[in-house]
Design brief:
Elements (H helix, E strand, L loop, with lengths): L2 H13 L22 E2 L15 E4 L5 E6 L10 E6 L6 E7 L1 H4 L6 E10 L8 E8 L11 E3 L8 E2 L3 E3 L13 E8 L7 E8 L9 E11 L11 H8 L3 E2 L3 E8 L2 E7 L9 E5 L2 E5 L5 E4 L3 E6 L7 E6 L10 E5 L11 E5 L3
Antiparallel strand pairs: 1-3, 2-5, 3-4, 4-13, 5-12, 6-11, 6-13, 7-10, 7-12, 8-9, 14-23, 15-16, 15-22, 16-21, 17-23, 18-19, 18-22, 20-21
């Protein structure tokens, strides 16, 4: 590619509101793993979120285990995502949905998706494809399952209503060594609201134990893929926390012996009021005696302080035991080593 062509691409991207080189995707190197670094049976179902911002799609559940890879990685890289076949002869892939505010400048423009990839063997994983997809339904509310039918081997999956392929996916001919691959498309779907990237294995002759590895995933303005630009881990984590996070703290007064009604403080403003959940046994510290009260109940959001995901929200936590009504309790993100359980409140506002 000539310097003149590169400058033309840059000028065109700037005119359209984009900037060649700037990545519209978050966590393209799979460094952030707030949910964990391994997703196996029970956490690797079709449409489950895995490593931050990346959603698994598969023709059924437990088709592939997903891992934050730290050994089989490109040169001078620390992480990749590893997709390990568990159920043979099924298609699978990963998706990232870009928030409207972060992709509106790319709609109506030419964009390029690039990434590094390899397979463990080309015997079966011999047809990997990539697509740039538009969603023209309600902004930031795409249908949970983007695929209505996976189709036969070599046939592109059929997309659900309001999803459109912006490029014609083709076999990228991956090898057993990392290389950079790219596809380009004009995002010209009328009334497009969100852009989605989809990378998948389009074969139905896989065997258990075969791997697809990906890293350096990037979507940018222009007709040419440019080198992946690293950002700090702190900035990458902060970007991910707009969609999924653990609270910095939660504190409030016990309204009765089994219920605390705290204000939960988020690490940052989230895209929308999140859904709350928990893992392990929740433990709050008595602000007076430092006793640990344990919960096995669910968290129910009573009311949001703001409709835009403002970083504080009222909640009700039920099913505690032996609280003292009227006493102040605190939830630290990291509890003392003597406390039982994993003690994690989760906040999920994923698209």
């Amino acid at each position: 590619m000539t310097q003149a062509r590169d400058l033309a691409d840059l000028a065109g991207a700037a005119t359209g509101g984009g900037l060649t080189g700037a990545n519209a995707l978050i966590n393209g190197q799979f460094a952030v793993a707030q949910r964990g670094t391994s997703f196996t049976s029970g956490s690797n179902n079709d449409t489950d979120y895995t490593l931050d911002r990346w959603k698994l799609f598969s023709d059924g559940n437990d088709v592939v285990d997903v891992t934050q890879e730290t050994s089989t990685v490109p040169t001078n890289r620390q992480y990749a995502i590893a997709l390990d076949v568990e159920t043979a002869n099924k298609k699978f892939g990963i998706v990232q949905i870009i928030e409207q505010k972060n992709c509106v400048n790319l709609i109506g423009e030419t964009v390029t998706l690039s990434f590094q990839a390899k397979v463990s063997a080309t015997t079966n994983l011999d047809n990997v494809k990539a697509a740039i997809i538009a969603w023209d339904g309600t902004a930031d509310e795409p249908t949970d399952d983007m695929i209505s039918a996976w189709g036969a081997e070599g046939t592109d999956p059929t997309l659900a209503t309001n999803f459109t392929y912006e490029n014609t996916p083709a076999n990228l001919n991956l090898t057993t060594s990392y290389a950079t691959y790219s596809v380009t498309a004009s995002v010209d779907t009328a009334s497009a609201k969100n852009i989605i990237v989809f990378i998948w294995s389009d074969v139905t002759t896989t065997s258990a134990g075969e791997f697809l590895y990906l890293s350096d995933v990037k979507l940018e303005a222009g007709q040419t893929a440019t080198p992946y630009q690293h950002i700090s881990f702190a900035d990458e984590l902060f970007a991910c926390q707009r969609y999924f996070a653990y609270p910095l703290d939660a504190s409030g007064v016990a309204s009765q012996t089994t219920v605390i009604q705290p204000i939960v403080r988020f690490p940052r403003e989230m895209i929308s009021p999140p859904a709350f959940g928990f893992t392990g046994v929740l433990q709050f510290t008595d602000g007076y005696t430092a006793d640990h009260e344990q919960s096995s109940g669910n968290i129910t959001v009573i009311t949001a302080q703001a409709t835009d995901g403002h970083p504080a929200q009222f909640c009700s936590l039920a099913n505690f035991s032996s609280l003292t009504a009227g006493r102040f309790y605190m939830y630290p993100r990291r509890v003392p080593s003597t406390a039982a359980g994993t003690n994690k409140i989760t906040m999920d506002a994923e698209l």
